[in-house]
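Exercise 7b. Backbone tokens:
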């Protein structure tokens, strides 16, 4: 009697099945972790690629950031603030600057006097009081030059008086304007932390 498990076909079928199961097991034991490893690495590489793209975009903006920084430094040097080592230096520079603006505008400065520092909203202001005279147009140009100047200057008080001309041609001559102005500018002390 020929048993079925002794047949050649059965033995070959069992051999092929066992080898197939073994190959699948070895494949699962080796290929699956390798596949997982490489897919994780691929995800990590894609994440790093995104980070690299963002960093590259930041690096491209470096020149723009440096240009902005330089323009801010230039602006601070050129000054929106009156700058100096102490309030006396700043006030002297302010007096000189305002006097030059007035003369350039065609008015005549009669007196320039320094005023004490003022503090408003944690900002210190240095100021001068000045008496000027001239024609209406020269006073207008002087006030405009002061208000448009850089560093920014502010006229906080103004007293303007018209002085009539004396003499035979008094009615034809342009009247002389006398003005007393208080001019202030924001202060930035050099060497002091802001």
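Sequence design result:
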């Amino acid at each position: 009697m020929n048993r079925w498990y002794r047949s050649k076909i059965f033995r070959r079928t069992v051999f092929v099945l066992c080898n197939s199961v073994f190959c699948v097991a070895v494949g699962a034991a080796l290929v699956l972790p390798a596949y997982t490893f490489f897919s994780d690495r691929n995800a990590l590489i894609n994440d790093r690629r995104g980070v690299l793209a963002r960093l590259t975009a930041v690096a491209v903006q470096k020149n723009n950031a440096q240009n902005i920084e330089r323009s801010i430094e230039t602006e601070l040097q050129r000054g929106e603030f009156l700058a100096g080592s102490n309030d006396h230096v700043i006030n002297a520079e302010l007096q000189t600057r305002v006097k030059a603006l007035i003369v350039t505008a065609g008015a005549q400065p009669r007196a320039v006097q320094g005023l004490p520092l003022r503090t408003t909203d944690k900002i210190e202001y240095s100021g001068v009081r000045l008496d000027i005279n001239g024609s209406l147009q020269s006073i207008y140009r002087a006030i405009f030059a002061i208000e448009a100047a850089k560093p920014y200057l502010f006229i906080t008080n103004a007293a303007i008086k018209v002085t009539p001309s004396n003499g035979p041609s008094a009615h034809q001559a342009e009247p002389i304007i006398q003005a007393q102005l208080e001019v202030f500018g924001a202060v930035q002390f050099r060497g002091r932390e802001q």
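Instructor comment: The two ends are 108 Å apart (CA to CA). The first helix runs from residue 8 to 60.
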